[in-house]
Specification:
Structural class: alpha+beta
Number of strands: 10
Strand content: 15-25%
Distance between the termini: 18 Å
Order of helices and strands: HHHHHHEEEEEHEEEHEEHHHH
Radius of gyration: 23 Å
Helix content: 25-40%
Oligomer: single chain
Number of helices: 12
Length: about 350
């Protein structure tokens, strides 16, 4: 490793700058910009994420302390909290969203052969959301309840490598299930959904797209059994049925058969009822698949602990989305570097700085 340059500079050297400039040009990000470009803004926010800066003034102070190294770290414009605040307010957040998707595509290519831990060749996704509480007085555009604001981070996670393939940032008032309409279903892939995403019309769209879902059943599920299959009770399985919904609305919205699997988790003394539209996989594998959905919870926990998304450098919707997408870019960049053991140790040391 080249020890004559900062680790941050060496990390940023791996960014696909040609793709970044295309994203900037797509939204005229540098139109009439004289001294603080979109790249300067991205580098400032990425540095803030990796070193966990608390405010714009904190970012400015920390970077100016390394004034002699800023040029070699990739900065070309004047760094000040006013410049950064104005950029967060005015520069289109979609620039950084599109660039994050470029990094995501690179990361998925690196992890496409990553073992899943299950006897399954298909791609497996977990979809869930996490809520970040905000102050209503400062973030009125994200009002969640009467006296509170919040933003939601809706994430479709590829379980091979824990790479976020689709991320949506909304106000807290948006119902989670509505985000299913934004997803493009991949034929043959499995989608693991929490019980809060049960909407039979939308689940039927997954079936029509030749994709598979695994979710937990409603407690008041109304159905009739069409077929029973034998199960091994020593594995925790209690039943494996083919069913049809009989509720007046659910039967109309999902008019084809479903598979219902009853599983008992002895470790947690918990009975779980799974619904899926896949009739080929072993019932125990279906239960193991849903257990793998926990990886998306670990992803949310990791980014909240290691990235700066619980507090924001700006209060506008554009500033919040910009910060979130830069944080996602940093996460994916670390995942890309994880494939190289030398860079992994360097990133670990830098993140502790």
């Amino acid at each position: 490793m080249n020890r004559g340059r900062t680790i941050f500079a060496q990390l940023m050297d791996l960014l696909p700058l040609t793709e970044f400039r295309r994203c900037v040009e797509r939204y005229d990000g540098d139109y009439k910009v004289q001294s603080f470009s979109c790249l300067d803004q991205f580098l400032c926010l990425a540095y803030a994420q990796l070193t966990y800066r608390e405010s714009l003034r904190d970012i400015e102070t920390c970077l100016r302390a390394h004034a002699r190294h800023l040029y070699h770290m990739g900065f070309r414009g004047g760094i000040s909290r006013n410049n950064l605040a104005h950029a967060n307010l005015q520069r289109d957040w979609r620039i950084y969203a599109d660039f994050a998707r470029v990094l995501i595509a690179q990361a998925r290519a690196l992890y496409q052969d990553e073992p899943l831990g299950l006897e399954l060749d298909q791609t497996v996704y977990a979809f869930d959301s996490t809520t970040i509480d905000l102050c209503l007085a400062l973030f009125p555009w994200a009002q969640f309840r009467r006296h509170k604001s919040a933003v939601k981070l809706h994430t479709l996670l590829d379980l091979r490598g824990s790479i976020p393939t689709a991320v949506y940032v909304t106000g807290g008032q948006v119902n989670d299930v509505n985000l299913l309409d934004q997803l493009v279903w991949e034929a043959g892939a499995f989608y693991l959904l929490d019980r809060g995403y049960i909407d039979y019309r939308r689940l039927y769209l997954i079936t029509q797209a030749l994709a598979f879902f695994v979710t937990r059943a409603d407690q008041n599920l109304r159905y009739r059994s069409c077929q029973y299959r034998g199960v091994d009770h020593t594995q925790g399985l209690r039943s494996d049925q083919t069913i049809r919904l009989t509720g007046p609305r659910s039967s109309r919205r999902y008019p084809v058969p479903l598979r219902r699997i009853h599983y008992f988790d002895a470790e947690k003394d918990l009975r779980l009822i799974f619904l899926t539209n896949n009739f080929q996989l072993a019932p125990l594998l279906i239960a193991q698949l849903y257990r793998a959905r926990w990886q998306v919870e670990l992803f949310f926990r990791w980014i909240k602990q290691h990235l700066h998304i619980r507090a924001f450098y700006g209060t506008s919707e554009n500033a919040v989305k910009t910060q979130v997408w830069v944080a996602i870019s940093v996460y994916v960049l670390v995942a890309i570097l994880k494939s190289n053991s030398v860079w992994t140790s360097a990133c670990t040391k830098f993140c502790k700085f």
